Amino acid sequence: MSKSILHFNGLYGELNANHGADYIFSELIKTRSQTFGWVIRPHIHNRLFQIFCVESGKAIFQGNNYEKELTGQFVILIPPMALHGLSYSPDIKGRILTVSDTFVEAAFPGQTHILASINKPVFMVDFGGKQKFKQIQDLILQIDNELFSERQEKQFMVKALLCQLFVIFYRMFEVGAGTRIKDSAYLLHFKKFQHLIKTAENDRTITAFANDLNITPIHLNRICKSITRKPAIQLVHEHAVGEAEKYLKHTSLTVAEIAYLLKFEYPNYFSKLFKKYKKVTPLEYRNGINNL
User: Fold this and answer.
1) What are phi and psi of 205, to 5 degrees?
2) Which of 56, 245, 290, 292 is most exposed by smallest CB count within 10 Å?
């Protein structure tokens, strides 16, 4: 087993990609997946959103400590830094749209609630009839046609089509999401906090995170509880435990090495924190996976 989780700045298999802030790409699922024997190993894209629009066939999605089998018509939306792998049936028919996070953010200035709603892989299988799926599929095809055309101002058209696509997704999320959080300032701070958690280079206190956001720790907790019903420190801990699960499952790193990677000064504290949330020690968790 590898000592690290696969990370790609570009598409799967592109080891030295360095795409710009306006990167967007469209391709058939089979174009890349058949090259790897229809199996895409669990990996992470550092700065890319991906939209998988499947018309027919079967896929098994592998996320962080779970698997999901999907067949027929479905859409998967994967945000940056989300672990994901996919195994396809050879008869899979569909398309993948890949977009840089900065391009998506530029398409929604001031609309932080739309992007804040996409913080983990989303599976769409119930479209309330075939028309909604066809609407999504047609928008992705229009984006594909624009990307590979020589039309004037195609970048503006692509951005407009992308906006329509994400608004459709957001409306679908909102159907079952309950009360909408209307305070855009809260959402902006929360999204920045999520980014700080993911990119922190050392073990940081809630006070340090709050200082980076130019707010008080009390206000940061108020924001987190308003949006997730969880205090800020719990979100920090849950992120660390989630990252630990990835390394325990997909690498051969020792528990101490994982603790070091996750910026824990003391491996024993890391193990206690992991057990608090998962009810087993990191070693017991790994042994359980190996036994399965």
Assistant:
1) -85, 165
2) 292
